[in-house]
UniProtKB/TrEMBL annotation:
Listed GO biological process terms: phosphoenolpyruvate-dependent sugar phosphotransferase system
Keyword line: Cytoplasm, Kinase, Phosphotransferase system, Sugar transport, Transferase, Transport
Cell compartment(s), UniProt: Cytoplasm
Family matches, as PROSITE patterns: PTS_EIIB_TYPE_4
UniProt protein name: PTS system sugar-specific transporter subunit IIB
Gene Ontology MF, one: kinase activity
Record-linked Pfam families: PTSIIB_sorb (PF03830)
Domain PTS EIIB type-4: residue ranges: 1-164
Predominant localisation class: cytoplasm
Cellular component, GO annotation: cytoplasm
Amino acid sequence: MAIIATRIDGRLVHGQVANLWTTKLQATRIMVVDDKVSQSQIEKSGLRMATPAGVRLSVLDVDTAADHILNHKYDSQRVFIVAKGPAPLLALINKGVGIDSINIGNMSQTDDTKHITKSINVLDSDVADFKELQSKGVKLTAQMVPGDESQDFMSLLKKGLGGEA
């Protein structure tokens, strides 16, 4: 399986993911893993329009994504996995998908989130998921665009939560 990168970005496929990351990674397929979005024809249509020409797009729920990956459906491709938050990625790992690192790019602010960086805001459930991902040996980094310096995400999380992480 050629998973070349995994990213959390609340906007899923948009300018940074579509143009900067996909180009930098030379991805041939973007795989959006999201149970709700995979059921919405309107959202899937929007994601298809944002996907660069020549790059394939899959918008799958967690179970289907894990099934396709574990059954080697994309072995000949360079797959870039994108999710809105850590939960679907943790679910993939718990189903046996090998993900060794996750880049956290953008998680939008809501009334329920805690501010970590300019572009990363987390829910309490996200914090728990990030801790579990770390305990499974997944490297967590924060990097908005390829030209930015990659930072250790758990250090940023701990600082943003006042030392709680």
